[in-house]
Structure formats: structure tokens, C-alpha cells
Amino acid sequence: MSQRTLVLLKPDAVRRGLVGEILGRIERKAGWTIGALELRTLDRGILEQHYAEHVGRPFYEPLVAFMESGPSVALVVEGERVIEGLRALAGPTDPIAAAPGSIRGDFGTIVRENLVHASDSEESADREIKLFFPGLA
Ligand code: GDP
Ligand code: MG
């Protein structure tokens, strides 16, 4: 079941020089390929749409401020069961709870600054890919 998912390497990952490390983990998964990739500082407009489900939650405003604070790397990854697979590679939202071996488990300590975003379902992936890469077929 080949799928596409939207991944963000968040500003903490870029600032800390972890782009190569994280992209390497994705590239080394057999059969997964990068279909689009861009370095970009996200603005409030795109973040409000991206994180629409979280508007009004206590962590929302600091999350947007963090996500605006420097460039992110946005990419589309394609391949076998890549939506579930990327969530597993990232680990759970809280990096302290995330298992060693996962990206968040290996590199993170702070819930907000948890290095990566990965779409959580086919519906989210479709919506997020259209939002970040509107020209992609
Ligand atoms: P994800 O799908 O694992 O990224 O998690 P969510 O969709 O629930 O939340 C989106 C992002 O908001 C997370 O990746 C964190 O960066 C941040 N976040 C979520 N929950 C919390 C929280 O309880 N506290 C803080 N500070 N940040 C949170
Ligand atoms: Mg989420």
C-alpha cells in the first residue's frame, strides 16, 4: 500500500544541525523516497491551517511562536505504509516518553520542541501535502 505523507523537520532540528541525520533515517528505510523538499520559514497563515485542530489549546500560541522562529524543512515522503511508518520513526509526541531509537526519543526532551511532524492519517496527509506543496500532482 504505497502512500504519501507530509513531514516537517521543525526549527529546533534545523538549528541543531540534525537535518542530515533525520533525512538519513528516512532515506535508509527500504523503498521510501523523497517526492518534494523545501527549506522554508513558516508563517502564521500556514501554521493556523496546519495546526487548525489545536487552535485554542493552551500549547497552541507557544507552538506557533516556536514554529515561526526559524526555517523548517518540509518534505513529502512516498512509499509502503509510510504514514504509519513515519509516525513510528518519529516516536510519540513527548520525547521523554519516546523510545530510544526513535527520532524524538534519541534527540528530544521538550514536548513542544520535538523535532519532527508527520501526518497522522491519509486524510491529514492529503490536506497537509496540498497545503505545503500545492503544485504537486
Ligand atoms: P504530534 O501529532 O505528535 O506532532 O502531536 P499533536 O498533533 O498532538 O501536537 C502538535 C504539536 O504540538 C506537537 O508535536 C508538539 O510540538 C506540540 N504539543 C502537543 N501537545 C503539547 C503539550 O501538551 N504541550 C506542549 N508544550 N506542546 C505540545
Ligand atoms: Mg498531530
Could you characterize what this model shows?
- This protein is an alpha+beta fold.
- The chain has a single domain, classed as 2-Layer Sandwich (Alpha-Beta Plaits), CATH 3.30.70.
- Helices cover 40% and strands 20% of the residues.
- The protein has seven helices and four strands.
- It has helices at 11-15, 19-28, 44-50, 60-67, 82-90, 103-107, 122-132; strands spanning 2-9, 33-40, 72-80, 116-118.
- It has a four-stranded antiparallel β-sheet with strand order 2-3-1-4.
- The radius of gyration is 14 Å and the shape is globular.
- The chain starts with a strand and ends in a 5-residue tail after the last helix.
- The model has no long low-confidence stretch (mean pLDDT 98).
- Bound molecules: guanosine-5'-diphosphate and magnesium ion (MG).
